[in-house]
Amino acid sequence: MRTPLGRAAGLTLAEDLVAPTPLPAFDTSAMDGYAVAGDGPWTLTGSARPGRPWPGERLENGHAVEISTGAVVPPGAWAVLPVESATTTDGRVAGPVLERGKHIRHTGEDTPAGASLAPAGTPVGPALLGLAASCGYDELLVRRAPAVRAIVTGDELAQHGLPAPGRVRDALGPLLPPLVAELGGRLDDLVHVPDEPVSALAKAVDAADAEVVVVTGSTSVGVTDGLRRLLAERDARWIVDSVASRPGHPALLARPRGGPYVVGLPGNPFAALTAAHTLLGPLLAGLSCRPLGALPQVPLLSRVRAPAGRTRIVPVVWDGAGVRAVGGDRPAFLNGAALGDALAAVPHGHEPGEPVPLMLLRR
Ligand SMILES: Nc1nc2c(c(=O)[nH]1)N[C@H]1C(S)=C(S)[C@@H](COP(=O)(O)OP(=O)(O)OC[C@H]3O[C@@H](n4cnc5c(N)ncnc54)[C@H](O)[C@@H]3O)O[C@H]1N2
Ligand code: MOO
To answer: Which residues does the UniProt record annotate as the domain MoaB/Mog (predicted)?
Structure first.
């Protein structure tokens, strides 16, 4: 779809962003000073201000015009002499002779017309919007963010204030909308459903008019955890059935026949966050045709033990040449993730200083 620049942030380019004109589009002064031709001193013959075309005449050798940063450089100019290096007396400018082209941004120096500046699949961020505007675009051809419905399950969840005994505050309701947006989706609606009756979850999943349904809680094997049973009843195709990670092992991805993708995030909040980054993020990227780049590999300076056969996921902060574990990363506790710069995937047998893949967190 074609979308005005003001509404394209966070979406994905559906075609290459191509420069329709060279950039800069004209020879531009990079300094406030004097455009000079030939060897100095120079006779001052006029001025060039930004936003106006140059009237046309060529600057003769021995002549100079006062020029502002961003103004069109007159043809014939050899260089721009910064005002700090110039002395002016009686309509004459003196200063060092600069190498040809100094302080001139030449037409097409940043990019020639027709060059591809960003491939289809690039997420539209602030810099890309600015680049598109610099090129003269008013709108972009983008892919719609996949529509997501979130279903937060749990009879024990409270929505406000200090919870009563036996109840816990819903941490995932507030966490999911910005997280889904950060991972490239559009959360159209978020509903809370009780564990009992189990038909409530089925109703909420079946009612979803979305490409992706995220269910939190209910991923385990307890009597109140109905998601796996529901998916079996719906003859779902399993794409991921549990993950060899800690936390987050009950996470799942499946697709009931003719239905949306269902992502099951474990109820423990930090486990849910890690599963969202490892399962939901890649799914949304695929649905938006965003290529998944290789994860950055950075030395983890702390000692973090992962159980045999499992990848441990821990929040980390930048620390000079590497990252350090923050702590506060038990499955139900979001303290480390709230302070972390990234999630690190730590394999069994990792030694301090060895690189680990990182998933970046936005704060
Ligand atoms: N027999 C087994 N039991 C469990 C296993 C297992 O392998 N075998 N895995 C454990 C792990 S690990 C996790 S994680 C949980 C996943 O359980 P569910 O996804 O079914 O989630 P719940 O049982 O509903 O809740 C687990 C835990 O998280 C709290 N919770 C749930 N939703 C929220 C929320 N929105 N905000 C805050 N806290 C939430 C809930 O109160 C529970 O304490 O299963 C283990 N059991
Ligand atoms: O693996 Mo659970 O997902 O530890 O919290």
So the answer is: 149-286
Best of 153, 192, 220 for a ligand 1 pocket test (most atoms within 8 Å of beta carbon): 220
The CATH homologous superfamily to which domain 147-287 belongs is MoaB/Mog-like domain (3.40.980.10)
Work out the widest C-alpha separation in the chain, in whole angstroms: 94
Dist. CA 350 → ligand 1 center (Å): 27
Which of 304, 298, 283, 273 has its CA nearest to residue 354?
298
Q: Does the beta carbon of 163 sit less than 6 angstroms from any atom of ligand 1? A: no
For 131-176, what is each residue's pLDDT tens digit?
999 999 999 999 999 999 999 999 999 999 999 999 999 999 999 9
Closest CA to 149 of 206, 104, 97, 84: 206
The CATH code of domain 297-360 reads: 2.40.340
Q: Which amino acid makes up residue 204?
A: A
Architecture of domain 28-105: Beta Complex (2.170)
Q: Write down the ipTM of this complex.
A: 0.98
- CATH 3.90.105.10 given to domain 2-21+114-143: yes
